[in-house]
Records
---
Amino acid sequence: MIGIIGAMDEEVAKLKEKMDDVKVETIAAMDFYEGNLKGHPVVVVRSGIGKVNAGMCTQILALKYNVDAIINTGIAGSLDADIDIGDIVLSTDTLEHDMDAVAFGYPVGQVPRMDTLSFVADEKLRNIAREVCNEVNPDISVFEGRIVSGDQFVSDKEKKEWLSSTFSGKCTEMEGAAIGHAAYLNGIPFLIIRAISDKADDSATVDYPTFEAKAIDHSVRLLLGLCERL
Ligand code: ADE
């Protein structure tokens, strides 16, 4: 069974509509929709926004649903001039950009006393996602790279440049690294799939509401195609 997490209702609503044989259970104020999506057993859940919600949600998927893999679908701000609104980014790895124990000699982004700077996504899932994305979203580009997460909506140029130069991040959002972190601790393969809704700069608050729906459509189409293939 695959766990599918979206932070917001809008990001999972279309997936829920397409599910069969649905059973709903509420844990920690999150509704877990267990059933089939394109013939594949899944649990779809809206985690809520931010790293704590996302980490908790992942832990529930691990303990209660014993999922074999976790996919995070949603939207993000682009950190790379080549990655345009509507395009898709698949995570190679992910880290928490607001984790800072530099004072103790750790690189910014690394959780102290953990043995890794970033959490590495599942390569097989990523390869399948790339193929499916090219099939179902032929009009956009699909990129692969590091996704950086923090409890912050990034909407200024300086912060964006810092994220890009410090971490070589391709896009930024608010949950992926927490999902990767919790999946890593539980030994569960994961992939973050994000469609770009804005450029994470001074235009972000204007672009975000304008392009949110279009970006969500792209990630939902990819998710449905992915479930068909798995
Ligand atoms: N999700 C979508 N756009 C974002 C941004 N600019 N910063 C953080 N999360 C986002």
---
Amino acid sequence: MKDASPQALVEIETDGDIGLIRLSKPPVNALGVALRGAVHAAHQTLQDDPAIRAIVLYGAGRFFSAGADIKDFGKADVEPTLPQVLKALNNSPKPVVAALHGVAFGGALELALACHLRVGVPGLRVGLPEVKLGLLPGAGGAQRLPRLTGLSRAIDIICSGRDVAAEEALEAGILDLIIDAPARDAGIDAARQVLSGTLTALQTDSLQVAEDDASVTAARQRLAAKRPALAAPLKALEAVCAATLPIDEGLARERGLFMGLMAGEERAGLVHAFFAERATGRIPEQDVPPRDIAQLAVIGGGTMGVGIATTLLIGGYEVRLIEAQSDRVGAAQEAVTANLAGALKRGKLSEAGHAAASTRFTCSDALDTVAEADLVIEAIFEDMGAKTALFGRLDAICKPGAILATNTSYLDVNEIAAATARPEDVIGLHFFSPAHIMRLVEVVVADATAPEVVTTAFALARKLGKVPVRAGVCDGFIGNRILTQYRRAADYLLLDGADFAEIDAALEAFGFAMGPFAVSDLAGLDIAKATRDRKAATRPASERYSRVADLICDQGWYGRKTGQGYYLYDNGKATGPNPGAMEIVKAERQALGLRPQRFTPDDIVARCLTAMIAEATRVIEEGIALRPVDIDAVELFGYGFPRHRGGPMLQADLIGPETLIQRIETYAKDDPQFWQVPALLRRMQRDKRSFAEMNSGPKTTEKGQAS
Ligand code: CAA
């Protein structure tokens, strides 16, 4: 995002006695210090012009404005601050109209709320999404919104951070009117109505807010129950409650709460996650135009294939799903149909979109029908022999220029590519289950993969609303490789004395939706055992191996689907730890002569997180991931890493290399094979470097950095 020159940030023009201020800072008119300073000055100029009787603010480009410049967060405040600019607008003796189009989020809506009248154009979305960034509206939004909507609606909008469509905004009193015209014309129209007396312009700050104890109490209970780990929603509630005070007291209270959150780790984590989602698109191949793709094929009608076919259909593509076993074709077809119905129900598809998706879908056992597909995604079982055989056949069937992708979770994509005479067209597209819900796609670039195949994969994933992350070839790529070490750390903690319920509880308190043992039960212990069995022959003899999961499987306890695993289940709901599994753990500790140690929740989190960070550091060292921020994106969008923690690499920077090295060296006294200090971590300690610094450079911009 290039900075426009200060002169170009706003344009002032006049239409008779109406002065117009156009915000013009591509791509989203973010209200950083330069733009808000320019707005302030432009407003002053028009105030001082005796020929001007009303002022209109509107935005150039796709949006009115996306709000404050998120890149400024964490930096020292520079005057004029947004609250100062908005106070001046609200106190303006001439009526000020905000004419809104596209989006007006955060500070942009706060700006509009400080004006004396708001006109929206159809399609506008407004909102105060600050809680999603670990903040609250700190430029008067929590004081001025309730003055227009009442306390209850303001609590709903501010504490959820949700978008509000123009129609709801009108009904709620946020907008005064909707005019179907370009924002500039709508603004002039509204200003004329104010000047002629048909519309009343109001100074928001002069309004009063009625107390509403019932709504406040209900919201406090709801937020504490729903998001106990997050500070921002409850602080935002406190800020909204201050709206019943005189305006200046409320504004001061709000600003104090805002500054407290601005300094917090929750804000750092959520802002990092915002930029991580966008940073992954900066890849070495980014300037190479992608190939056109319209018709896609998915091979394999199991859970993954069905999920991938669904997401492609929702994305608007024509999809052929091929299930080799003819007796399973019907089930695959029904599963996709059910997924599409679910998407319709959740509002992911409109009625028309649902009907269209259904007509674009076919399912059969005839592989040769994929001949005209532009991109084929293989999603069969994880067996190299089966995959290479299939790719050999696809090579013979598919048209020249078709991209052949594999959804393998850990197999060697170079070996799969070598089974074809077109390795440049072969790539890994690793979706996560359920593929129509999970946002991560690891784009695995093999040695011969052509650059435009990479950009095509990225373009496809973005069109599907996914977060594509470029990965190199290795066993498990980025995510599963780190997951393996995280799981091992948890298994060793279990052997060494922490109970699985304690481990799960500690990681859930850290913010994971489920701890590792609850996840294993959900995924099926038999599935993980099959993978371990497959890898047994290549496992180093020196590697510490926990047999606990195998012994639980030996009982026929495969987790949730069998009613028993680490936990007991009743109708799919966990009812508590499985005493039988606890006995197995204890017996195994005894058999190994291990005296159980005590681990606090902090110890548990420290070990699991350090294991992740150490492996992630090696993933960076080896060039498997482009940057630390890509690893954070993988963990956030594919593995349930708590968003407000920003990802393991942001956590690593918060902990610091020195402490991480100390931890690894301490843990290594018991298990030197597992706990090894990555060389990069030592260099970072020596050179006083952070992972955030590695996010900058030619592959990304400073936006990928932790703020
Ligand atoms: N500040 C800085 N950069 C922003 C930004 C913001 N508020 N909003 C978007 N951008 C950047 C993005 O990082 C992206 O940059 P790159 O192209 O360099 O990666 C670019 O603008 C385009 O954004 P998207 O890729 O997201 O484009 P989109 O069309 O898909 O979505 C959007 C546009 C709906 C505005 C979306 O970007 C969005 O929701 N932005 C966040 C809005 C937000 O949270 N605003 C509140 C900020 S907090 C605040 O305003 C109150 C305060 O005082 C603290």
---
Amino acid sequence: MFWNEKSETLDRADLEKLQLQKLRETLKLAAGTSFYGQLFAENKIDISKVTSLDHLKDFPFTKKTDLRTSYPDGMIAVDKKEIVRMHASSGTTGKSTVIFYTQHDIDEWSDQVARSLTATGITPNDVFQNMMGYGLFTGGLGMHLGAERLGCMVIPASTGNTLKQIQLMEDFHTTAMHITPSYALHLADSIREQGVDPAELNVRKAFLGAEPYSVGVKHKVEEQWNLDAYNSYGMSEMNGPGVAFECEYKDGMHLWEDFYIIEIIDPETLENLPDGEEGELVLTHINRRAMPLIRYRTRDLTRVIPGVCPCGRTHRRIDRIKGRSDDMLIVGGVNVFPSQIETVLMKIPEVGNNYQILLNRVNNLDRLNLKVELKTNDLFGNENELRCLQSKISAEVIALITVTPRLELLSPGTLPASTGKAVRVIDNREI
Ligand code: AMP
Ligand code: ZN
């Protein structure tokens, strides 16, 4: 079953011809932004000389920090009145990475999601419970629009409120759900606590994404719910969900090549790698107007799966995400850089030099523990002051990353002193 058979099954030569044409249009748009205007000039790039997809390799990369430094509008490529929506990457306050959309971008994104869902066998008969956050995060609204476009009845349940989720599922006979893998397992436990077996509900398909997870977790979700789970990959910088999606064959995710040009690079040498080899995924927009990004380093590690998929789609597949080439952690669906936590801690005068970030999974949910050494032992006799400091640190961390830490304040010298590269993060989660 196809959403748009012609676009999804274009032969490679036609697909690449289309990519080149769309790349040239996109480069023109990008060159008009203050960010790329300057970047192209500095690198002496003449976009009119781009006559083959290979020429893309001459362009510099775009990084997440570039989005922050050009905040709020240094990358906008259209007249501001054409912009109809913004989203922001999860987690950070202040200068987060902001993404803008024109109506064209929103329409195309909905189509991209509708196409992805159709590839898994979803039809207008499905009742689609969307358990991703609605708001600045792209997961909620992005998937919502695509499922609605396809004709499903969408239940915009958003995250949390487990008992309500269960009631909605039972009363409206939910057949498909969009959910993080960790929440899918947690919800299954909660449903069993209510005396109901999740496998006996009507949910037959789950779209799992927004955080890294193993094949083992995927199988657990499939068994406990008696459903087919499909891997769904996306990121705000690239629209949101729908960038790459598993089809009914569940053997890698088709990355929609009429929306993005795929490159895999070695994160150390920055050289391009051939299909089959694992490296960092770099994507170039070719179907966005408000804010096209050229050679964006996603930092996600994967490979292009060689060969063609039996489903007939010609867009290449990427393997499940193996990790990241930076230190970004995803905690409860929120992107967290350890350096952000460090910045908060180091601004607090009572905090000493050593700290540790510990991540655990409790009842399938992420827990962030922070162990922080104080500068002196002075506060330890004074419960009130200690509690005050504890609240202050917690509040600052929550304000920055929206994740509530479990905080432990320690005497100086309690944590193992580093004898080389400090080990600040201990991730005990089994994913
Ligand atoms: P955000 O921009 O907040 O949506 O976060 C995007 C990041 O979430 C990606 O760069 C990946 O690191 C991660 N992510 C999204 N989908 C998946 C997936 N299916 N498997 C593993 N990681 C994912
Ligand atoms: Zn396929």
---
Amino acid sequence: MSRRIVLLGAPGAGKGTQAAAIRERFGVPHISTGDMLRAAVAAETPVGLQAKAVMEAGQLVSDEIVIGITRDRLGEADCEPGFILDGFPRTRAQAEALDALLEELGRPLDCCLALTVDVEEVLPRLLKRAEIEGRADDNEESIRKRMREYEQKTAPLLDHYRQQDLVVEVSGVGTIEEVGRRIEEALS
Ligand code: ADP
């Protein structure tokens, strides 16, 4: 069964919500680079101070920073049985760094779970989240920028993982429960 999972999907595809459910089912940690970066911003660490403005503008934080925090996190003991990576990798350089790191650890990926949605589906979800959570980067301009970053830099990673025969695609359209059931079937 898949335990080392990369979750790929556009902003607002529901990665965070579904990752939490997968964590329950497999008992592996949910590692969200977005959450780690937001925590660093809130704590005003050196990484947070560098990342804040970039994140608010909907741009990507540098590969160097993100690869560093992910490498540290994957080295912690709770990642031994596996992990769900949410929001990483987002660029080819990050994907290559992850491949190299996992090879070094002798723990290759089991699966790249791709959550697919349309832009029309996602924009209202993100605007609604903006109202509820008040995230600084959930304004329309930043959302559009994040969509473009996703299309240009992250969507091509599907091919990277297709070449390794790791991609499992699941539609992210529907209720949380419906999507959750599809994921459960796809991963079992
Ligand atoms: P969403 O998926 O809704 O765009 P995330 O919480 O995953 O939100 O990420 C929020 C922001 O954090 C991104 O727009 C980006 O600025 C930064 N970020 C998160 N993960 C990465 C990453 N792997 N590489 C570069 N920047 C990242």
